[in-house]
Amino acid sequence: MQSRVDRQLRALALAKACAACGARVRTIGHLTGLPPREALRLLFPDRMAVPRGRSPDSPEWYHGANLLHRAEASIVVALYRRLRDADFPAGEALVGAYRHYLGICQPPHRISFDRAFDLAAHTDGLWLTDTRSFSLVTCPTCHSEFLAAFGSVARSNDHCPFCKLVQRYGTDPRVQGAFPVQPLAAPSAEQLGMLILLQRSFGSSTGQAGTSSTSESQT
User: Fold this and answer.
1) What is the pLDDT of residues 141-169, one digit of tens each?
2) What pLDDT does residue 139 have?
């Protein structure tokens, strides 16, 4: 069991990580239990740097959002759920998922940390609400996970944002910019050397097998 000091240190570390991701004070409070004044004092000594704006309302927003927003929202929640399924605490799972999302998706990132928090809250029924508004479902065509209304079952790919991205990729510059084709990395000298050795080894063994077959047929 963690001591009180350990719990406070963990909460402060999580609060710092949330602030680095751009979280609002309200969001930090929900995730860590820190009172707003304490969060302001510890994390935002410059009051002009405090994130402001209206809190997200994802159950209303998601179903009317454009394709790229729905795709990136699904990526964030899928990453979050994988960490939760691996027994990570909810707050740490959210921070880890958001950092991973920032690393794999091209800027400008369409999902803010507060939006990610709101999506996760309405997927798991945590922090803000006891009601689950979203489920992650698996597309039967591309097998990607995407957000849908709670309790939904994907019987086709009609609502899969990733299938729609693929369909539009050749003609939509916005989709191409959001998910650019990544060039293959040039192999290193060591990798090229190993490839040559494997080719020589394969050629040698093939040649020996061919020789043995010829000998047997002559006998």
Assistant:
1) 999 999 999 999 999 999 999 999 999 99
2) 96
Residue located via tokens 């899928």: 78
Residue 200 φ then ψ, to 5°? -65, -40
Give the DSSP H/E element, type plus range, for residue 152: none
d(CA 47, CA 32): 20
52 alpha carbon, distance to own chain's centre:
25
24 has a pLDDT exceeding 60: yes
Would you call 149 helix, strand, or coil by DSSP? strand
Backbone angles phi, psi at 147, to 5 degrees: -80, 140
Q: Look up residue 143 and give its amino acid.
A: H
Q: Whole-angstrom Cα distance, residue 27 to residue 118? A: 9
CA separation for the pair 90, 120 (Å, rounded) = 9
Residue 13, CA distances (Å) to 18, 20, 39, 173 in order: 9, 11, 12, 40
Q: Is there a cis peptide before residue 108, judged by omega within 30 degrees of 0?
A: yes
Place of tokens 């369909």: 167
Instruction: Please state whether 22 falls in left (phi above 0), alpha (psi between -120 and 50) or beta.
Output: left
Among 92, 118, 83, smallest CA distance to 15 is for 92
DSSP letter (8 states) at residue 23:
-
Average pLDDT for 67-92: 96
